[in-house]
Amino acid sequence: MSRRTRQHRLRRAATLVELIVSITVIAVVAGVSLPVIHGATDAYASAAEIRRAAERGAYAMEKTVRLLRDAPEGAAPGTLGLSKAAASEVIFSDGRGLRLDGTTLRYVQPDGSEPVLCEDVEEFTVTYLAKDGATSMISTPQDTQRFHVTLKVRGFELRTCVMARLRMISG
Q: Whole-model pTM above 0.70?
């Protein structure tokens, strides 16, 4: 074998210095990119948790609006059938309602069961108002014209105003 062929074969292999330099470059690139990747995964996890809280809150608010909108008629014509009215609880004469139990919002059903509507609730407030939208009707809740509802789940806050269909038909 000629000397030139032997040198050509030896030149195709990497030297130890080249190998060490390559490993060092890869280590530097990994050291710079890992914190970025870690930060991105933390941001994704945080955004996913906020999205789940928003979805749970929106679902609970939708069920709340439907319940309040479909309030049953009371004993007197044009009144609401409320058996219990408080800032964090509303129970209608037909047995349906909502109740905040610690940090759990429960949907009260006529059969007495109370399935969980939403967990991790920081605030659930129902305000009973007159037709003018400002006068409190907590002393005579059956004459309520509209409900203002605030629901806060893991920092995500929803607010709405609901008028019972009964009021829109009779009033």
A: yes
